Every structure is written in structure tokens, then in C-alpha cells.
Amino acid sequence: MESSRWGLIYCPKEGVRHIHKEWEEISAYLAEKNVSYDFVQSEDPKSVERLAAMLAANGYTTIIIVGGDAALNRALNGILSQGDEVRSRVALGVIPNGWGNDFAHFWGFEEANYKQTIDWLVKRRLRKVDVGYCISEAVGKDKPRYFLNCLNVGLVANIMNIKHKTRRFWGVLTLSHVSSIFLLLFQRMEHKMHFKVNQDEIDRSVMTVCVGSARGYGQTPSGVPYNGLLDVSVVSHPEMSQMIEAMWMLVRGRFLNHKAVISYRTRKVDFYDCGKAMISLDGAVWENASAPMTVGIHPEWIDFIIPV
Predict the structure, then answer these.
(1) Per the confidence metrics, is the pTM higher than 0.85?
(2) Burial (0-12, 13-18, 19+ Cβ within 10 Å), 6
(3) pLDDT tens figures, 241-265
(4) What is each CA distance from 122 to 96, 111, 259, in whole angstroms?
């Protein structure tokens, strides 16, 4: 495979009627820039992992995802499933085109400016970024799952799961949001969890835990994916007035200042019990995982294409 040729995976947005219009615009600009690439389209979210593994195994050294955080996560896991030799030669890039693009936003990639993104990708400026990992005994110690942005346990993972399911059911974004809010009323707002961060052992009811290598959708705003560390936010169940205040502080980037939030910086988190809470990685729900599990970090583990 010629080294300059991209393997490109297009992941259509769920809940969008004219899904191919965005791709037509992107592909037209790729042609204008004389980008050489081979194109595959995912049939569903879970197929992205298989397609990324196939491209990596077939010698592509640049794999570009046109999609959001969850698609990028599945592509990452597909590439890493091929072993260290493949990991060391593959560079991963993204053209944001999903409902959640937090990792892309960290670097300055924006959905509305795909031309700028492609210009940067063509220049192929690489930076090794950290990769978080999670090992669940229920799945198997030899089957870790990886993440670039964050791992969520509890309410935020529930929200991600509801949004994915309602988008597939309704197919219309507005109806998806309305039904998500309605279904959220029936969710458990907290879970009895038992886990250890640094020297602190936490054994109590918790609303959500975010372990972030990057910003974690605002829950780990100080996290950066190149310091070899994980930021952790533990959120207790606040009163309604405090919850509204917490949402406002989340939007304003002051989430860690809320009194219901405890924050840590670490290299490892050990979960002994999650109270049957849902788990998501970069917005992709990990349906068969449960505690006990270990979350850690591989410093500077894969090449990512960043802006020039």
C-alpha cells in the first residue's frame, strides 16, 4: 500500500435524513485537493471497528474517520486489535461528523470547517497521544477496551445509551431529544459504587464518574491527552437546585468548582463494584462490561494527526 494513500471510513450520522449530502461535499473537496484514498462506509456503528481492523491489517498507514467520538473510539479499538507492530505504523485522523465530537474539538477541528480539517490532515502533522484502557473481568483480561477522550460510569453513560437508542428509533433529532429527556426521568440517578483512586477508597452512592484522558465532555476540563495521566471527576447526587447550578458550571467550564464534584489526577482507577451502572467509552456504550475492572493509561501510544 502506497504510504500516502488514506484508508477512509465514512460513518453516516444517525437521525439525519440527507446523510449523503455532507459526504458529497467532503469528497468533492478531497478530489479538489488530489487526496488519494480508498473509501468504505460503515453499515452500522459496530461495523466501524471491523472496517478499521481490516484497513490496518491491509497496510494502510493513515486511517481517517469521518464521524464522531463513538466512531473514532471503535476505529481506535479496531486498529489496536491488530497488535503493536500495526499500532506503531498507523496514524489516526478524524473529520468530525457526529453528534459528539469532543476529542476533535480539543484539537480545534470543527464540523462546519471540513475544508480546514482536510488541509491539516493532508499535511499529516503527527503527535503521539495517550490511550486510556479498561479491563473488565466480565469480558476478559485479554480483551481490553480503549478510549481517547473518556470513560463514564453511571448517569452520563445512561444518557449516551438513551440518545443512541432514540436516534435509531425515531430517526429525527428533535424527537430523539424529547424522548431522551422523557426516558431520563425513569433512570436511576445514582448507584452504589466502590472504587479506589490514588489513596482514596470511595464506597458510597455516586451519580456519575468520569475518567478522562482529555476533556470528557466538560467533566474533566483540565485533562490533556499527552501527559500520561487520567483526570477523574466523581459527582454525588446533588439537590435539584444544585444540579441546575452544576449544569450551568459545566457549560461555563467551571464544573470542577461545584461542591458536589470531587476531582483527582491519577494513572489508575480500580472499580470493585459499579452497582450495575452503565459504562461508556467516548460515548460508545460497553454493554457487556461490569466491575471488577481496572482503568489505566498508555502514555503516547498512537499517532494522531493534529492541526498545523
Answers:
(1) yes
(2) buried
(3) 445 554 544 444 555 555 678 899 9
(4) 15, 17, 45
How many whole angstroms separate alpha carbon 231 and alpha carbon 241? Answer: 26
Q: Give residue-wise pLDDT tens across range 64-97.
A: 999 999 999 999 999 999 999 999 999 999 999 9
C-alpha cell at 43: 453499515
Residue 264, SS3 per DSSP: strand
Who's near 174: CB < 8 A, 6+ residues apart?
A: none
Rounded CA separation 302/5 (Å): 19
Give Cβ neighbours of residue 271 (< 8 Å, ≥ 6 apart): 153, 193, 194, 195, 291, 292, 293, 294, 295
Hey, what amino acid is at 23?
W
Out of 74-83, 169-178, 214-223, 291-300, pick the least confident.
169-178
Residue written as cell 489505566? 296
Q: How far is CA 137 from CA 78, 80, 91, in A?
A: 20, 19, 30
Which string of DSSP letters, residue by residue, matches 206-238? ESEEEEESS-GGGTSTT--TTSS-EEEEEE---
Angle (CA) 302 305 306, round 5°: 120
- 3 state SS of 64: strand
